[in-house]
Predict the structure.
Amino acid sequence: MDYETVDADSFGRSLKGMGLNLLVRDVKAECAFLETVFGMKSHQVSADFAIVTYGDQLFQLHSDGTYHSNPLLGLLPENPPRGAGIEVRLYETDPEEAVARAQAFGAVVLQQPKDKPHGLREAYILCENGYAWVPSRPK
């Protein structure tokens, strides 16, 4: 599927399994963060929406304004961190490289790369929307 040209109806009908949609204040800024720090690809980027790919997996970003009639909008905190408690785990991203790019980007590194007892070396990087991005690799 060509994510740059697929229409909303065809895209929606193609989704299977489990999906991830992150509500963000600024879609373009979040895309820049994800592309720069984790090498993700963003498609159909607008002020309201983007399709984001990480390898062969995809997720969506939506701006707050697109949720005007969604019941979740009323639950969003006015002050950050809005994504508290959510970890987005990136099992195919080198944590050292991601932390170096995150620091150059100006993102908050919550935890430097560290070996964990569950067999992974991982770091915690916070985006401006409060989501914890966890790049990791097997030890």
Q: What stands out?
A: Residues 8-138 form a domain with the 2,3-Dihydroxybiphenyl 1,2-Dioxygenase; domain 1 fold (CATH 3.10.180.10). The mean pLDDT is 90. Strands lie at 21-24, 41-43, 49-54, 57-63, 87-90, 108-115, 120-126, 132-138. DSSP finds three helices and eight strands in the chain.
